[in-house]
């Protein structure tokens, strides 16, 4: 059996939403200090809804596929649904990731949450702290 699903290979070789949003409403950057991998997500938000999402990822193929799928999953979604996107949901949408690559999808969940938190902070919007990782 192939190690990576066709969807992972597709999103790795043809990643969606690569790039930056110059006038982003929220930007989230997370990294794994141990390996040095970095993921940055830019969000355009209007009426509590993600209008556009882009990413820059310095990481492995699974991290790039996770970023690509995660940005596709949150575009057009209201923020409460965006905050409910888990790394497991991203991995499932990719038809699975190898067990030792699940941590790469965690970067996507954390970067999205960091970007929404950045938006809330910039706009003085109160939020439930328990929805966000430390
Ligand atoms: Fe760095 Fe996976 S090895 S996040
Ligand atoms: Fe480092 Fe996947 S992001 S191994």
UniProtKB/TrEMBL annotation:
Pfam families: NifU_N. Residues 4-123 form the NIF system FeS cluster assembly NifU N-terminal domain. InterPro entries: NIF_FeS_clus_asmbl_NifU-like, NIF_FeS_clus_asmbl_NifU_N. This is Nitrogen fixation protein NifU. GO terms for biological process: iron-sulfur cluster assembly. It comes from Papillibacter cinnamivorans DSM 12816. One of its GO terms (molecular function) is iron ion binding. NCBIfam families: NifU_clost. It comes from the Bacteria.
């Amino acid at each position: 059996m192939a190690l990576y699903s066709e969807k992972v290979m597709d999103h790795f070789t043809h990643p969606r939403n690569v790039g930056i949003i110059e006038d982003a409403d929220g930007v989230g950057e997370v990294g794994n200090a141990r390996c040095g991998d970095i993921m940055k997500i830019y969000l355009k938000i209007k009426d509590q809804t993600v209008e556009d999402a882009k990413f820059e990822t310095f990481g492995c193929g699974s991290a790039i596929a996770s970023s690509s799928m995660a940005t596709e999953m949150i575009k057009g979604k209201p923020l409460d649904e965006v905050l409910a996107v888990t790394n497991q949901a991203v991995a499932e949408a990719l038809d699975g990731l190898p067990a030792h690559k699940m941590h790469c999808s965690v970067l996507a969940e954390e970067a999205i949450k960091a970007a929404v938190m950045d938006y809330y902070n910039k706009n003085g919007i109160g939020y439930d702290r328990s929805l966000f990782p430390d």
